[in-house]
């Protein structure tokens, strides 16, 4: 073994194969859960990996419990796993705040429990506390994934792997081109124990004094009160040092401000931090360059595609979710297919989209939708013995409809109606467009 002060040569070693599956899914956020359920329902031998000890991704790790993007601002639209999850959680009284458009809030702890039950029931196997480290690349094909966990390092062989890591970890390490412009990150921090009655009485009686205390508290905590969403800009979330800095700063500043308020603000004496997210809330990171890149204009113009795998309507513009209302756009299968790598699909936040379109496609419902589409596609590709890019689109769409996915109906032109030939491409994939209007709440 040769090494110097700049690098160490790692000795090559023989890695045991710990598993061999049809479909391997990396990441158990909404996209990964949907992908694994969908693949298993199509009969594929499916294994899903998660680096943490629970499923749910941002939903549970960052307490992002509002499932947004179900409808078009007026009525519900999405079906498939989006509704399966809702129906399952309703059985346990774990759904609240259902809106006219069908959006709903979930109980994160019940979600952790029931997501695993749903996977188990459809025959998908799962492995927690397991990092999907490196893809096993053979030529231009991903043939499995090296994993690491307390058991050590091993290899899982797969016919098709689906990258649902949100950061496109597998696609990036396989050499796929990725755009990596970031959006704001936030650490979810919840405060309880504030005596609102005492606080409001003080605010009413001494408004200037109250305002001045709040100004000091905000100044100590990056401009927001403890517990309010704080936005960290320009954080390279693929850099552990940058992540470490934000984790530390977010907690340090929040506590500094909280202890100041406990001493100075009536009603805050017993306030405490009741919960912090076990993972940073990341809004955007790597986006894979796929065969087609969905653009913001595609969403805003309700564009239909012949290879549609989901029809959705949500559009996140700053704080306004359904802006404009009544959109009716398709997500094309090609944005799940990396441009140059076989044996691999992507789903969730890292699908091929431009920066602005990602702001809408990263919502939980689009992530469920792309996950479900990727899972079905992977299973069909295995069954037909073709690479995912070689799938018969009509068969994929029939199978998705068989899983109750909404691809359009008579009243809005039907599946694929009005679809243009949309050539492959990615005009704005690595774009330098404007930021979404204001930092999104979502
Ligand atoms: C602060 C904040 C608020 C938001 N609010 C809303 C909201 O109100 N409503 C809404 O609909 N959306 C909201 N979003 C967006 C939404 O939560 C996410 O975009 C969505 O969860 C992304 O889904 P995903 O499955 O692609 O990734 P994630 O939810 O991030 O899941 C990825 C999973 O993969 C795992 N993983 C990553 N790398 C590896 C690896 N190498 N090996 C194994 N496992 C790995 C992670 O641990 C994680 O469990 C919000 C996002 C943020 C940051």
Topology of this protein?
Elements: E1 17-26, H1 30-41, E2 46-49, H2 58-61, E3 66-67, H3 80-90, E4 95-96, E5 104-106, H4 108-121, E6 125-127, E7 131-138, E8 141-149, E9 152-163, H5 169-173, E10 178-179, E11 185-186, E12 189-192, H6 196-205, H7 207-220, H8 240-264, E13 272-276, E14 281-282, E15 287-288, H9 296-300, E16 308-312, E17 329-332, E18 344-346, H10 355-361, H11 364-384, H12 393-402
Parallel strand pairs: 1-2, 1-9, 2-6, 9-18
Antiparallel strand pairs: 3-5, 4-5, 7-8, 8-9, 10-15, 11-14, 12-13, 16-17
Helix pairs in contact: 1-11, 6-7, 7-8, 11-12
Bound molecules: flavin-adenine dinucleotide (FAD).
List keywords for this structure.
single chain, 442 residues, alpha/beta, FAD/NAD(P)-binding domain, 2 domains, 7-stranded mixed sheet, 3-stranded antiparallel sheet, 18 strands, 19% strand, globular, binds flavin-adenine dinucleotide
